[in-house]
Amino acid sequence: MLAELSPTLIAEVELATKLLKPAQRICILTGAGISAESGIPTFRDKQTGLWENYGVEDLATPKAFIRDPKLVWSWYQWRRQVVADKTPNPAHHALAQWQYHAQSTEQQLTLITQNVDDLHEQAGSTVTHLHGNLWRHKCGQCEAPVQEQARDSYSSQNTVGYDEALMTCAQCGGYIRPDIVWFGEALPVDEWHTAENAATNCEVFISIGTSSLVYPAAGLAQSAKQNGAQVIEINPNPTPNTFVDITLAEKAGIVLPLLIEEITAL
Ligand code: NAD
Ligand code: ZN
After folding, report:
1. 77-109 pLDDT per residue, tens
2. Which residues face 178 on adjacent strands?
3. Predicted confidence band at 57 (pLDDT cuts at 50, 70, 90)?
4. Distance between alpha carbon 261 and the CA centroid of its chain, in Å?
5. Does the predicted model carry a pTM greater than 0.70?
6. For 98-155, how does the pLDDT look when each residue is reduced to its tens digit (9 = 90+)?
7. Ligand 1 in contact with 35 (CB < 6 A)?
Protein backbone atom coordinates (compact mmCIF):
# COMPACT_ATOMS: atom_id res chain seq x y z
CA MET A 1 0.00 0.00 0.00
CA LEU A 2 1.23 3.46 -0.92
CA ALA A 3 0.31 4.70 2.55
CA GLU A 4 3.34 2.82 3.94
CA LEU A 5 5.63 5.36 2.28
CA SER A 6 6.58 8.88 3.39
CA PRO A 7 4.41 11.71 1.99
CA THR A 8 7.29 12.94 -0.22
CA LEU A 9 7.80 9.48 -1.66
CA ILE A 10 4.06 9.02 -2.24
CA ALA A 11 4.04 12.26 -4.24
CA GLU A 12 7.01 11.07 -6.33
CA VAL A 13 5.39 7.66 -6.94
CA GLU A 14 2.23 9.43 -8.09
CA LEU A 15 4.24 11.61 -10.49
CA ALA A 16 6.05 8.54 -11.82
CA THR A 17 2.75 6.71 -12.31
CA LYS A 18 1.36 9.64 -14.32
CA LEU A 19 4.41 9.55 -16.53
CA LEU A 20 4.56 5.79 -16.98
CA LYS A 21 0.93 4.84 -17.40
CA PRO A 22 0.44 6.41 -20.84
CA ALA A 23 4.04 5.90 -22.05
CA GLN A 24 4.48 3.49 -24.94
CA ARG A 25 8.22 2.95 -24.99
CA ILE A 26 9.96 2.42 -21.67
CA CYS A 27 13.58 1.40 -21.10
CA ILE A 28 14.59 -0.04 -17.72
CA LEU A 29 18.20 -0.46 -16.61
CA THR A 30 18.97 -2.43 -13.46
CA GLY A 31 22.20 -2.74 -11.48
CA ALA A 32 23.51 -4.67 -8.50
CA GLY A 33 21.20 -2.77 -6.12
CA ILE A 34 18.12 -4.62 -7.38
CA SER A 35 19.66 -7.90 -6.20
CA ALA A 36 20.87 -6.52 -2.86
CA GLU A 37 17.60 -7.43 -1.12
CA SER A 38 18.04 -11.01 -2.38
CA GLY A 39 21.28 -11.14 -0.39
CA ILE A 40 23.77 -10.60 -3.23
CA PRO A 41 26.35 -7.97 -2.25
CA THR A 42 26.84 -5.02 -4.59
CA PHE A 43 30.32 -3.90 -5.68
CA ARG A 44 30.05 -0.90 -3.38
CA ASP A 45 29.58 -3.21 -0.37
CA LYS A 46 32.91 -4.10 1.18
CA GLN A 47 34.22 -7.51 0.13
CA THR A 48 34.04 -9.91 3.04
CA GLY A 49 36.06 -12.78 4.48
CA LEU A 50 38.85 -14.06 2.29
CA TRP A 51 38.35 -11.32 -0.25
CA GLU A 52 38.35 -8.26 1.97
CA ASN A 53 41.85 -7.21 1.01
CA TYR A 54 41.27 -7.37 -2.73
CA GLY A 55 39.89 -4.63 -4.94
CA VAL A 56 37.96 -4.92 -8.18
CA GLU A 57 41.21 -4.36 -10.10
CA ASP A 58 42.69 -7.52 -8.52
CA LEU A 59 39.66 -9.65 -9.33
CA ALA A 60 37.67 -8.40 -12.32
CA THR A 61 40.07 -7.23 -15.03
CA PRO A 62 41.84 -9.04 -17.90
CA LYS A 63 45.19 -8.05 -16.34
CA ALA A 64 44.23 -9.67 -13.05
CA PHE A 65 43.41 -12.94 -14.85
CA ILE A 66 46.75 -12.93 -16.66
CA ARG A 67 48.60 -12.17 -13.42
CA ASP A 68 46.82 -14.69 -11.23
CA PRO A 69 44.17 -16.80 -13.00
CA LYS A 70 43.64 -19.01 -9.93
CA LEU A 71 42.83 -16.05 -7.72
CA VAL A 72 40.34 -14.63 -10.22
CA TRP A 73 38.73 -18.02 -10.93
CA SER A 74 38.48 -18.72 -7.19
CA TRP A 75 36.74 -15.41 -6.62
CA TYR A 76 34.15 -16.23 -9.30
CA GLN A 77 33.68 -19.71 -7.84
CA TRP A 78 33.00 -17.98 -4.53
CA ARG A 79 30.54 -15.54 -6.18
CA ARG A 80 28.73 -18.46 -7.85
CA GLN A 81 28.36 -20.06 -4.43
CA VAL A 82 27.00 -16.83 -2.98
CA VAL A 83 24.45 -16.51 -5.78
CA ALA A 84 23.56 -20.23 -6.22
CA ASP A 85 20.73 -20.36 -3.70
CA LYS A 86 19.50 -16.76 -4.01
CA THR A 87 16.01 -16.07 -5.31
CA PRO A 88 14.27 -13.04 -6.85
CA ASN A 89 12.91 -10.39 -4.48
CA PRO A 90 9.70 -8.33 -4.84
CA ALA A 91 11.48 -5.87 -7.21
CA HIS A 92 12.35 -8.63 -9.74
CA HIS A 93 8.84 -10.08 -9.43
CA ALA A 94 7.17 -6.69 -9.93
CA LEU A 95 9.15 -6.03 -13.15
CA ALA A 96 8.27 -9.50 -14.46
CA GLN A 97 4.61 -8.85 -13.71
CA TRP A 98 4.74 -5.54 -15.52
CA GLN A 99 6.36 -7.17 -18.57
CA TYR A 100 3.63 -9.80 -18.55
CA HIS A 101 0.93 -7.15 -18.22
CA ALA A 102 2.49 -5.12 -21.07
CA GLN A 103 1.93 -7.99 -23.50
CA SER A 104 -1.75 -7.08 -23.57
CA THR A 105 -1.26 -3.29 -23.74
CA GLU A 106 0.46 -0.89 -26.11
CA GLN A 107 3.49 -0.60 -23.83
CA GLN A 108 6.87 -1.73 -25.04
CA LEU A 109 9.17 -2.46 -22.09
CA THR A 110 12.85 -3.17 -22.66
CA LEU A 111 14.63 -4.54 -19.61
CA ILE A 112 18.42 -4.24 -19.58
CA THR A 113 20.64 -5.37 -16.72
CA GLN A 114 24.25 -4.92 -15.68
CA ASN A 115 23.85 -7.87 -13.33
CA VAL A 116 25.48 -11.19 -13.97
CA ASP A 117 23.04 -13.10 -11.78
CA ASP A 118 19.87 -14.58 -13.32
CA LEU A 119 17.27 -13.33 -10.85
CA HIS A 120 15.32 -11.45 -13.55
CA GLU A 121 15.00 -14.68 -15.55
CA GLN A 122 14.08 -16.63 -12.42
CA ALA A 123 11.26 -14.13 -11.86
CA GLY A 124 10.03 -14.71 -15.42
CA SER A 125 11.41 -11.62 -17.20
CA THR A 126 12.96 -11.32 -20.61
CA VAL A 127 16.19 -9.39 -20.08
CA THR A 128 19.28 -8.26 -21.98
CA HIS A 129 22.54 -8.80 -20.07
CA LEU A 130 25.14 -6.11 -20.79
CA HIS A 131 27.87 -7.56 -18.59
CA GLY A 132 27.56 -11.30 -19.17
CA ASN A 133 26.39 -14.17 -17.06
CA LEU A 134 27.93 -15.73 -13.98
CA TRP A 135 26.76 -19.19 -15.03
CA ARG A 136 28.45 -19.19 -18.44
CA HIS A 137 32.15 -19.74 -19.06
CA LYS A 138 34.38 -19.33 -22.10
CA CYS A 139 38.00 -19.92 -23.06
CA GLY A 140 40.19 -16.96 -22.09
CA GLN A 141 42.27 -17.50 -25.21
CA CYS A 142 40.11 -18.63 -28.15
CA GLU A 143 36.76 -17.56 -26.56
CA ALA A 144 35.11 -20.97 -27.26
CA PRO A 145 32.03 -21.30 -25.04
CA VAL A 146 32.21 -23.94 -22.33
CA GLN A 147 29.44 -26.22 -21.13
CA GLU A 148 27.77 -24.71 -18.06
CA GLN A 149 28.68 -26.28 -14.74
CA ALA A 150 25.68 -27.73 -12.89
CA ARG A 151 24.20 -25.05 -10.66
CA ASP A 152 23.59 -27.53 -7.84
CA SER A 153 27.30 -28.33 -7.67
CA TYR A 154 27.59 -24.95 -5.92
CA SER A 155 26.41 -24.70 -2.38
CA SER A 156 26.83 -21.88 0.10
CA GLN A 157 27.86 -24.62 2.60
CA ASN A 158 31.07 -25.34 0.67
CA THR A 159 34.20 -23.34 1.29
CA VAL A 160 36.15 -21.76 -1.53
CA GLY A 161 39.85 -21.09 -1.04
CA TYR A 162 42.29 -19.13 -3.16
CA ASP A 163 43.32 -22.20 -5.14
CA GLU A 164 40.25 -23.53 -6.88
CA ALA A 165 41.29 -25.85 -9.74
CA LEU A 166 41.50 -24.12 -13.10
CA MET A 167 39.84 -25.66 -16.15
CA THR A 168 41.52 -25.64 -19.54
CA CYS A 169 40.06 -25.37 -23.03
CA ALA A 170 39.69 -28.67 -24.92
CA GLN A 171 40.50 -26.84 -28.15
CA CYS A 172 43.50 -24.66 -27.38
CA GLY A 173 44.58 -25.40 -23.81
CA GLY A 174 43.86 -21.82 -22.65
CA TYR A 175 42.41 -21.21 -19.18
CA ILE A 176 38.65 -21.11 -18.87
CA ARG A 177 37.25 -17.82 -17.56
CA PRO A 178 33.80 -16.54 -16.67
CA ASP A 179 31.78 -15.18 -19.62
CA ILE A 180 31.60 -11.82 -17.91
CA VAL A 181 32.59 -8.38 -19.15
CA TRP A 182 35.51 -7.28 -17.00
CA PHE A 183 36.51 -3.69 -16.38
CA GLY A 184 38.33 -2.45 -19.49
CA GLU A 185 36.59 -4.91 -21.85
CA ALA A 186 34.09 -4.16 -24.60
CA LEU A 187 30.40 -4.94 -24.14
CA PRO A 188 28.76 -7.65 -26.28
CA VAL A 189 27.79 -5.98 -29.58
CA ASP A 190 24.18 -7.19 -30.00
CA GLU A 191 23.24 -6.56 -26.39
CA TRP A 192 24.73 -3.06 -26.47
CA HIS A 193 22.86 -2.33 -29.68
CA THR A 194 19.57 -3.39 -28.06
CA ALA A 195 20.29 -1.18 -25.04
CA GLU A 196 21.31 1.89 -27.04
CA ASN A 197 18.29 1.56 -29.30
CA ALA A 198 15.87 1.22 -26.40
CA ALA A 199 17.47 4.11 -24.49
CA THR A 200 17.52 6.56 -27.38
CA ASN A 201 13.96 5.73 -28.49
CA CYS A 202 12.16 5.56 -25.15
CA GLU A 203 9.79 8.10 -23.65
CA VAL A 204 10.71 7.15 -20.10
CA PHE A 205 13.98 5.66 -18.83
CA ILE A 206 14.06 4.00 -15.40
CA SER A 207 17.40 3.48 -13.68
CA ILE A 208 17.17 1.01 -10.77
CA GLY A 209 19.86 0.13 -8.21
CA THR A 210 22.86 1.31 -10.14
CA SER A 211 25.58 3.64 -8.91
CA SER A 212 25.82 5.01 -12.49
CA LEU A 213 29.60 4.98 -12.29
CA VAL A 214 30.38 2.15 -14.69
CA TYR A 215 30.44 3.22 -18.36
CA PRO A 216 29.21 2.73 -21.01
CA ALA A 217 26.07 1.44 -19.22
CA ALA A 218 25.92 4.60 -17.11
CA GLY A 219 25.67 6.68 -20.30
CA LEU A 220 22.34 5.10 -21.32
CA ALA A 221 20.29 7.33 -19.02
CA GLN A 222 22.08 10.39 -20.44
CA SER A 223 21.39 9.26 -24.02
CA ALA A 224 17.74 8.80 -23.17
CA LYS A 225 17.54 12.27 -21.62
CA GLN A 226 19.31 13.89 -24.60
CA ASN A 227 16.74 12.27 -26.87
CA GLY A 228 13.83 13.76 -24.96
CA ALA A 229 13.01 11.01 -22.45
CA GLN A 230 12.06 11.63 -18.83
CA VAL A 231 14.33 9.82 -16.38
CA ILE A 232 13.22 8.10 -13.17
CA GLU A 233 15.78 6.81 -10.69
CA ILE A 234 15.15 4.24 -7.93
CA ASN A 235 17.99 4.15 -5.42
CA PRO A 236 18.08 4.76 -1.66
CA ASN A 237 21.41 6.57 -2.14
CA PRO A 238 22.29 9.58 -4.30
CA THR A 239 24.07 9.04 -7.64
CA PRO A 240 26.04 11.43 -9.88
CA ASN A 241 23.03 11.74 -12.24
CA THR A 242 21.97 15.37 -12.03
CA PHE A 243 19.43 15.24 -14.86
CA VAL A 244 16.95 12.86 -13.20
CA ASP A 245 13.32 14.03 -13.33
CA ILE A 246 11.89 11.85 -10.58
CA THR A 247 13.89 10.27 -7.76
CA LEU A 248 12.37 7.45 -5.74
CA ALA A 249 14.85 7.33 -2.86
CA GLU A 250 13.89 3.96 -1.44
CA LYS A 251 14.82 0.29 -1.77
CA ALA A 252 13.71 -1.20 -5.07
CA GLY A 253 11.98 -4.12 -3.31
CA ILE A 254 9.74 -1.67 -1.46
CA VAL A 255 8.96 0.99 -4.03
CA LEU A 256 8.78 -0.99 -7.29
CA PRO A 257 5.89 -3.31 -6.33
CA LEU A 258 3.89 -0.26 -5.22
CA LEU A 259 4.71 1.74 -8.35
CA ILE A 260 3.90 -1.16 -10.66
CA GLU A 261 0.66 -1.88 -8.84
CA GLU A 262 -0.35 1.73 -9.57
CA ILE A 263 0.73 1.57 -13.22
CA THR A 264 -1.04 -1.68 -13.99
CA ALA A 265 -4.24 -0.80 -12.09
CA LEU A 266 -7.22 -0.23 -14.38
P1 NAD B 1 27.12 -0.88 -7.84
O2 NAD B 1 27.53 -1.91 -6.83
O3 NAD B 1 28.13 0.06 -8.36
O4 NAD B 1 25.95 0.03 -7.23
C5 NAD B 1 24.86 -0.49 -6.57
C6 NAD B 1 23.85 0.63 -6.36
O7 NAD B 1 22.67 0.05 -5.82
C8 NAD B 1 24.29 1.72 -5.39
O9 NAD B 1 24.08 2.98 -5.97
C10 NAD B 1 23.36 1.53 -4.18
O11 NAD B 1 23.01 2.75 -3.56
C12 NAD B 1 22.16 0.90 -4.83
N13 NAD B 1 21.34 0.06 -3.94
C14 NAD B 1 21.74 -0.67 -2.86
N15 NAD B 1 20.69 -1.33 -2.33
C16 NAD B 1 19.62 -1.01 -3.10
C17 NAD B 1 18.24 -1.40 -3.05
N18 NAD B 1 17.77 -2.24 -2.13
N19 NAD B 1 17.40 -0.88 -4.01
C20 NAD B 1 17.86 -0.02 -4.96
N21 NAD B 1 19.16 0.36 -5.03
C22 NAD B 1 20.02 -0.13 -4.12
O23 NAD B 1 26.46 -1.71 -9.00
P24 NAD B 1 26.26 -1.38 -10.54
O25 NAD B 1 25.86 0.04 -10.70
O26 NAD B 1 25.38 -2.47 -11.06
O27 NAD B 1 27.67 -1.48 -11.27
C28 NAD B 1 28.81 -2.20 -10.93
C29 NAD B 1 29.07 -3.52 -11.61
O30 NAD B 1 28.85 -4.52 -10.64
C31 NAD B 1 28.24 -3.99 -12.77
O32 NAD B 1 29.08 -4.14 -13.85
C33 NAD B 1 27.71 -5.39 -12.40
O34 NAD B 1 27.93 -6.28 -13.47
C35 NAD B 1 28.52 -5.78 -11.22
N36 NAD B 1 27.85 -6.56 -10.14
C37 NAD B 1 26.78 -7.38 -10.38
C38 NAD B 1 26.15 -8.06 -9.33
C39 NAD B 1 24.98 -8.99 -9.63
O40 NAD B 1 24.92 -9.56 -10.71
N41 NAD B 1 24.02 -9.11 -8.70
C42 NAD B 1 26.61 -7.88 -8.01
C43 NAD B 1 27.72 -7.02 -7.80
C44 NAD B 1 28.31 -6.36 -8.88
ZN1 ZN C 1 40.43 -22.15 -26.25
Report:
1. 989 988 999 999 999 999 999 999 999 998 999
2. 137
3. confident
4. 22
5. yes
6. 999 999 998 999 999 999 999 999 999 999 999 999 999 999 999 999 876 667 777 6
7. yes
Nearest to 143 by CA among 109, 108, 174: 174
Q: Where are the beta strands (DSSP E) in the chain?
A: 25-30, 108-113, 128-129, 132-139, 145-146, 176-180, 204-208, 230-234, 246-248
Beta-carbon contacts of 91 under 8 Å, excluding residues fewer than 6 positions away, are: 34, 37, 208, 209, 251, 252, 253, 256, 257
Q: How far is CA 51 from CA 27, 46, 48, 54, 76, in A?
A: 35, 9, 6, 6, 11
The verdict on the CB of residue 33 being under 6 Å from ligand 1 is yes
Domains of the chain: residue spans and CATH: 1-39+87-131+186-266 (3.40.50.1220), 41-85+133-180 (3.30.1600.10)
Give the separation between CA 31 and CA 54, rounded to whole angstroms: 21
- The CA dihedral of 122, 222, 63, 59, to the nearest 10 degrees, is -40
Asked if the peptide bond before residue 41 counts as cis, ω within 30 degrees of 0, the response is no
Q: Establish whether residue 214 lines the binding site of ligand 1, counting it when its CB lies within 6 angstroms of any ligand atom.
A: yes
Q: How far is the CA of 216 from the centre of ligand 2 (A)?
A: 28
